[in-house]
Amino acid sequence: MTLKILVRSEKKKKQLQMEKRGVIDTWIDKHRSIYTAATRHAFVVSIRDGSVDLSSFRTWLGQDYLFVRGFVPFVASVLIRAGKESGESSDMEVVLGGMASLNGEIEWFKTEASKWDVDFSTVVPQKANQEYLRFLEALMSNEVKYSVMMTAFWATEAVYQESFAHCLEDGNKTPVELTGACHRWGNDGFKQYCSSVKSIAERCLENASGEALAEAEDVLVRVLEYEVAFWEMSRGGD
Ligand SMILES: Cc1ncc(CN)c(N)n1
After folding, report:
1. Of 97, 185, 195, 229, which is most buried by a Cβ count within 10 Å?
2. Candidates 75, 127, 156, 193: which one to mutate for ligand 1, based on the most atoms within 8 Å of Cβ?
3. Would the CB of 68 count as within 6 Å of ligand 1?
4. Rounded distance between C-alpha atoms, residue 116 and residue 230, angstroms
5. Residue 172, burial from CB neighbour count under 10 angstroms (0-12, 13-18, 19+)
């Protein structure tokens, strides 16, 4: 192949990749500052640079355990909608995979609790946690469009994936006792799962009305705001 043809085919490849960018990436660009606030929060950065305050980690652990228990019904409702509305059996399989991993997640939290001496039976959900779960509960309504629900679901999972993957990237000083948490959400399998959820959301949004698009964008921003508030709890905010 001549150099000219090679350059042209590389250009074409790049063009195709750019064309594949969906509306979610456009929204992330538009709302970059809140996206960065959610995925590079000081708590996460402190895990990565090793300066994390372990009482903050304990607070996060207790609050996230309660969150995950509340998140299960939300994922279950996404699963029901995937079965009813998607018309694509793979949607259901992707969500079912996420649901199944939540089982392991709850067990992981329990093991961590005994490691960190956290008694979940005494942990009280803080305001940010309650508000986030109330928001997700509202999204379980049949009135909420499948595309909107799927966008929220993706954003919730993606924030954890991006945050914890950051703690494992080159140059990290993540304390070895916290790498389990980072691998849980920062591993390649979870990244792949998030990418599958994103593709589902993108496919739904391609055919969505203007109204649904506006709702999905709003829900995406709100999830990011709730995630920031959630991280803030670890620093003692309520
Ligand atoms: C607050 C929060 N957001 C997302 C995740 C990932 N399921 C989580 N465990 N907690």
Report:
1. 185
2. 156
3. yes
4. 20
5. middle
Give the ligand 1 atom nearest the CA of 185.
6
Q: What is the pLDDT of residues 116-139, one digit of tens each?
A: 999 999 999 999 999 999 999 999
Alpha helices by DSSP H, the chain: 3-19, 23-30, 32-39, 42-49, 54-85, 89-115, 127-139, 146-166, 179-186, 188-206, 210-233
DSSP state string for 191-206: HHHHHHHHHHHHHHHH
DSSP category for residue 144: S
pLDDT digits (tens, 9 = 90+) for 190-236: 999 999 999 999 999 998 999 999 999 999 999 999 999 999 999 87
* pLDDT above 90: percentage of residues in the chain: 86
In the residue annotation, 232 being an active-site residue is answered as no
From ligand 1's centre to the CA of 128, what distance in Å? 13
Determine which one of 162, 202, 215, 227 is catalytic. Answer: 227
Give pLDDT tens digits for 153-164: 999 999 999 999
